[in-house]
Specification:
Layout (H helix, E strand, L loop, with lengths): L1 H16 L3 E5 L4 E10 L3 E6 L17 E5 L5 E10 L4 E7 L19 E6 L13 E6 L14 E4 L11 E4 L4 E11 L2 E6 H12 L8 H10 L1
Antiparallel strand pairs: 1-2, 1-4, 2-3, 3-6, 4-5, 5-6, 7-8, 7-10, 9-12, 10-11, 11-12
Helix pairs in contact: 2-3
Organism: Sorghum bicolor
InterPro entries: Peptidase_S1_PA
Protein name: Serine protease
Length: 227
C-alpha cells in the first residue's frame, strides 16, 4: 500500500507540474534544471541554483548574460540572468512571452524529519543523454533544517535518489503539491541536500532590499517582475 501511494503521488506531481520544470542548456550542453516561479504571460521568472549556470573567465555567473532553456514540449527560449546569490547558491532568470505554469512554495509551517518529498527533474543518463521529460524521485526528509542566522540560510537533508544534472530542480512536499526547496547537492550516495523555502525568502528580500518579514514570496516575485 505504501509503495502504491508513493507511485500515486509521483504520478500526480509529474502530471500536474512537468510543464513547470525547465531544462537549462542548449542543443549540445545540459547545465541543469530550473522551475517557473512566476508568469504573467509577459514576464516569466525561473529559479535555479547558481552553480549550474555558465561562468565567465573569472568563474563568475554574469548578471545580464543569456542562458538557453527548454520545456518538455520542446519549446526553446532564452532566459536572462537577473539575480545571483553565490553563497546561497541561488539564481533567478527572466524570460519573456513564454509558457510555463508557476509553482507555489510551502510557506505554511515547519519541515520535520520523516516527511515525504518528491524531486521532479530533468537528468542526464549514461553517456550524457537527457530524456525529453522530467523524472520523479521520491524520498523522505532525514533531519530538521538548521537555520544559520549569520548567512540567513539553511539546507535540508533528504534521501531521494537522483541522477546527474538534477541541481536546480524543485522538491515537492508530497501531499501538498507545494515546493519545499531547490535541489542543490549530494553529501554521499543517496543523501541529498536541498535549499529551503526560508532561504529562498531571505534571498528574495536581499535582492529587493526590503526588510518586511511578512511579505510573501509571491508578492516579492511580483515586484521583481515589474522591474
Amino acid at each position: 500500500m505504501a509503495n502504491n501511494m508513493v507511485s500515486y503521488w509521483c504520478a500526480t506531481i509529474f502530471d500536474n507540474f512537468k510543464g513547470s520544470v525547465v531544462r537549462l542548456g542548449d542543443e549540445k550542453h545540459f547545465y541543469g534544471n530550473g522551475f517557473v516561479v512566476y508568469n504573467d504571460n509577459n514576464t516569466c521568472l525561473i529559479l535555479t541554483c547558481q552553480h549550474v549556470l555558465p561562468k565567465d573567465n573569472n568563474g563568475n555567473v554574469v548578471v545580464g548574460s543569456t542562458v538557453g532553456a527548454m520545456f518538455h514540449t520542446g519549446v526553446r527560449f532564452d532566459a536572462q540572468v537577473a539575480y545571483v546569490d553565490v553563497d546561497r547558491d541561488l539564481a533567478l532568470l527572466r524570460a519573456y512571452n513564454t509558457v510555463g505554469i508557476p509553482l507555489r512554495f510551502w510557506e505554511y509551517g515547519g519541515i520535520v524529519s520523516g516527511i515525504d518529498v518528491v524531486l521532479l527533474s530533468f537528468f542526464a543518463m549514461k553517456f550524457g543523454q537527457v530524456l525529453a521529460e522530467p523524472g520523479t524521485f521520491p524520498g523522505k526528509i532525514l533531519s530538521e533544517p538548521i537555520w544559520n542566522e549569520a548567512t540567513r540560510s539553511e539546507e535540508i537533508i533528504s534521501d531521494y535518489t537522483s541522477m546527474p544534472g538534477t541541481s536546480g530542480a524543485p522538491v515537492f512536499l508530497q501531499r501538498a503539491n507545494r515546493v519545499v526547496g531547490v535541489n542543490s547537492g549530494v553529501i554521499s550516495g543517496t543523501i541529498k541536500t536541498f535549499i529551503s523555502v526560508r532561504t529562498v525568502e531571505a534571498t528574495l528580500r536581499e535582492w529587493l532590499q526590503i526588510g518586511d518579514e511578512n511579505i510573501t514570496i509571491q508578492e516579492m516575485l511580483e515586484r521583481i517582475a515589474e522591474q
